[in-house]
Amino acid sequence: MIKDFNTPSCEITPMTMAIIPKLDRNGLSALIVEEDLEYVVDSPPSKIIEAACKFFGVSLQGRKEGARNISGITHKAPISVAPSSGIYFFPTAAPTNHKCSWLSHSHIDRVDKAENNCAEITFTNGRKITLDVSKGSIQNQVNRTAQYRYLLDSRFKYLNRNRTEVVADPSLPNSP
Question: What Pfam families does this protein map onto (predicted)?
Answer without folding.
Answer: ComK
